[in-house]
Design brief:
- With 400 residues, the protein is an alpha+beta fold.
- It contains 9 helices and 14 strands.
- The longest helix is centred in the N-terminal third of the chain and has 30 residues.
- The radius of gyration is 49 Å and the shape is elongated.
Length: 400
Amino acid sequence: MSDLNEIKGLVEGINSTLMPLRAEVESLKSRDVVDEAKLAKMADEVTAKMEALQEKQRKLEAAVSRPNSTATEPGFLAEHAKKFSDFMRSTARTEKTEIEVRAMNTNVQADGGYLVRPELSNFVVTRVFETSPMRAVANVESGSAKSRDYLIDDNEAASAWIAEGGTQAATDTPELGQKEIVAHTQRAQPSATWEMLADAYLDVEAWLAGKIADKFARTENTAFVSGNGVGKPRGILTYADRASPEVYQRDRIRQIVTGAATTVSADGFIGQQNAIKEPYQARAVWMMKRGTFGEALKLKGADNYFFSPVLLRDGQASMQLLGKPVVFADDIPSVGAGNLSVVYGDFSVGYTVYDRVGLQIIRDPFVLAGQGRVRFVTYKRVGGDVTNFEAFNIARCAAS
């Protein structure tokens, strides 16, 4: 409404200017001399006021032409001026008011969430899988042949006492044995799309190689412990017990019954340790499940020599049991009726790992090319078997 009043005022101003101008023109008709300067000034004032009037008219027409326009309603500007003043004076800006307030919000994508991006860490959280670190204690060799033969010198020569000048018959000649360790193949063939290899923020190929290497290591460690030797290494727990505990037999490993089916005992550990010959004791280690070692730590009373399980060597903590290192092997069974739960001895001569080909990765972009994927053919060739059958023994829990 104020716009209309302003236009009305401009019109009245123009009329007030035109009246003297018209009178001046009429008076000039009767004169011979015309005051050009005065006439030009009055014309300029009329022109300026006419231009202002036209501008106001254009604004008013634009406001009226908008849909649902309230610009021409009485009191519109005054009402909104009051609301704006009240809003600016208010201290409780968070309360609901009659004025519509729009604020940017990171929780709503359209209101600004698209502008806020999470930061991606370079640290990748990886699940840890327990294994049996046989390579850390076993004899590890590498070669270029499909298999490797090992001579087994586990026999002895015969001898006899003879009197002076006496005669002696021929004695037995010691016999040799042979053990062949074949390199078996382990393979994996993961694949990834071309787009994944190109667009991923990390090196997908290197990540896959690391995952496969970890899986290969755990799979071969399981075979070193419990593999049946068919298409895979043969494990230490797959050999039968001796027919007689004190009599050596090739291809048999002595088993010592602990006397309990569900618990460990100090007498059982001591008996197992002392069943190994002295030459093997220098490098002998315990191998058992982590939970089994935890049961050993619970031995109390007269078994207080189990209370010093940690030995610091070269600044590193080493788990100890009866003065010998403990290696945790997740593939060895827990304590239970009839289970082979603890292995003790010198693995550096008792078990041999033969590496034929290390981890190999062949990037094959052709076989799955029609599917838009690259295949990573990954393989490794390794063998393993027991090479000394008296270098260690195995504790067997009682049947019941």
